[in-house]
Design goal:
Elements: E1 2-17, E2 22-28, E3 34-40, E4 47-70, E5 74-89, E6 101-114, E7 118-129, E8 138-150, E9 157-163
Antiparallel strand pairs: 1-4, 2-3, 4-5, 5-6, 6-7, 7-8, 8-9
Length: 176
């Protein structure tokens, strides 16, 4: 499977501003007309201000998947995924934001099940980002899982063992 997706968002705003002089009435003259005094100095010319903003995101993914059942008891599966993301601020406010945010990575999974009751799974990710430390732009992230699905034994339910233990792996963007 191969997919690519791009999302541009652009906003252009043009503001037209006129700031006329303002007056207030102080009374009337002999003919009954209002007497005005200027309270603020304005301009007879229109002022234009322009605001531009927008981003561009490009995602690309490619994957290969395998699933096969052997002899009604052995199920083998595999997945390989490549992904790439490029995010750009089209109108950056500073030099740091002018650089694209880029991520690239591969991920894989190999699975085995016996009678769809006992499962073993190995997952890995090899991901890179300019947000990682300069000497560690890429990282390898493995995970092994063994699961028993005991439908007939209601007291067990489903039990899983993970190595390394799965924790909150929230990704926090660092300032560049």
């Amino acid at each position: 499977m191969l997919s690519s997706h791009g999302t541009p968002t652009i906003a252009h705003t043009l503001n037209r501003i006129v700031t006329p002089s303002t007056y207030y009435a102080t009374g009337r003259d002999e003919e009954g007309n209002l007497d005005f005094v200027r309270s603020t100095e304005g301009s007879d010319y229109m002022k234009l201000t322009r605001t531009n903003s927008g981003t561009r995101t490009i995602n690309f993914e490619a994957s290969a998947n395998y699933d096969r059942l052997f002899g009604e008891k052995h199920r083998v599966g595999a997945l390989f995924l490549f992904s790439m993301r490029n995010y750009t601020d089209n109108f950056p406010g500073n030099y740091v934001d002018a650089f694209a945010h880029k991520n690239i990575g591969i991920a894989g999974r190999a699975t085995y099940s016996y009678y769809d009751r006992y499962f073993a799974e190995f997952n890995f990710g090899y991901n890179g980002s300019e947000n990682f430390a300069p000497d560690k732009r890429f990282g390898f992230f493995p995970l092994f899982c063994y699961r028993i699905y005991a439908k007939q034994r209601s007291f067990l339910g489903s039990v899983a063992f993970y190595y390394p233990p799965v924790e909150n792996q929230r990704f926090v963007w660092r300032n560049r």
